[in-house]
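Duplicate of earlier report; L-ascorbate oxidase input re-posted below.
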Amino acid sequence: MVWSAMTTMRGAPAAALLVLVALAAGARAEDPYHFFEWKVTYGTKTIMGTPQKVILINDQFPGPTINCTSNNNILVNVFNMIDQPLLFHWHGIQQRKNSWQDGLPGTMCPILPNTNFTYHWQPKDQIGTFYYFPSIGMQRAAGGYGLITVHSRDLIPVPFDTPADDFPVLVSDWYTKDHTVLAKNLDAGKGIGRPAGLVINGKNEKDASNPPMYNVEAGKTYRFRVCNVGIKASFNVRMQKHSLLLVEMEGSHTVQNTYDSLDLHIGQCLSFLVKADQAPGDYLLVASTRFIKEVSTITAVMRYNGSSTPPPSQLPEAPSGWAWSINQWRSFRWNLTASAARPNPQGSYHYGQINITRTIKLSTSKGKVDGKERYALNGVSHVDPETPLKLAEYFNATDGVFQYNLIGDVPPAAGTPLKMAPNVITAEFRTFIEVVFENPEKSIDTFHINGYAFFAAGMGPGTWSPASRKTYNLLDTVSRHTIQVYPRSWTAVMLTFDNAGMWNIRSNLWERHYLGEQLYVSVVSPARSLRDEYNMPETSLRCGKVVGLPMPPSYLPA
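Output:
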């Protein structure tokens, strides 16, 4: 059952709790419920030497970790106590049959100031490392993000021993300008510039080391869950005198290769194991920006219990150049024999043997519209309408809100003027589609597809052609949700569009995203069956054209 609720602030906690407890009593034993109540406020923090406004959750930055198990029911009652509309997106959570809870302006009406809304979602058949963030405007530049850890069910084997502890490593570039100022600059046709530096778990260099962020015991092994939760910069992570054993990437168990360091691009998460096998002392976890002329570096202390030895003065050297990063990506492999969220091995899904039914080639571009810079996919720069796209579609009220398929499956001719409009394409339900991202810009980009995991089969320089398929990995590329596209290069992904709903395909560089480098894909089940998609919850928020409209007929029983 999918459930959500909205009440006004006054008297809401007690009323909501009674409803939630009643619902939980009827939950199936194998799908436990976890309840969270978040009060979202502004607070003042001095992170880069300048006091600034930060988005807090229950007075915390980063926000609380959502720690759960596959298929658990997660209910998050969000009280919006800031002065702007608010939504939270659950980055990497597929929201099976349930784009109603995806938390983006194209799928949900915002939570208005001084109101609250309860999200209800499940990490259905998922395990791994994910995160959440506020998705409206440039709010994510002000914090409000946090970790989501999804564990395997007890009966599902995990391909490594249980670590002694599980450590969060949320690394973000950081801007000292207020998020509203960043948005105004973009609205005025300006850029946001370079970040002031990096933070780890919301802390600057000094605060990340005193007291130590990570405490370990000699001889034991620890899991570090690392996410790039920034808006602009890729980074490389490494540890003084310790190797990193990669075990998980965005919900997939990987072949367990050992690395000296790992690149993470915006929106990507992974897990590595570190064995505390060195002489007891302090050691530094190091993160530094990649592909930016002025490198920013931050460190955090990992301390062996009882240590009074300071960390070595020399930091491990960072890699350089694009080729190193591309070659490392090629080394990542899916663990074909390991089980993920289900008992069957990951490799039982033979993606390379499925016939491609359609190729969608998406090329990024930038240009001026009314004298101001915009970004686009295939010539259309996306704008969010007042009525969320999913609601307009569900209520059959798309007239005047958006048109389907303004773009084609191939980019327009060079020099075609950009058009600003809601950018919505359609994909036939349960078809296996190849999506090619082309990045003609001089800087790296990363892309995320909501509602799905995909197979990043190949990448290379220049523009893509059908002959590029000869270079694909059709056996064991990692199933994931976010992938980088290097400058003046392409990346090809493959997936089955089997999750009915309205799903965002976007650049994770939030400046580009804000300026239109995104689209939505509508995936409709022709059976209109509850087997394929949940009905819109009656208590969902409404706005725009759908206010006051009667609910459409229910989908057919499964």
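The CA atoms of residues 154 and 245 lie 23 Å apart.

Merging into the original ticket.
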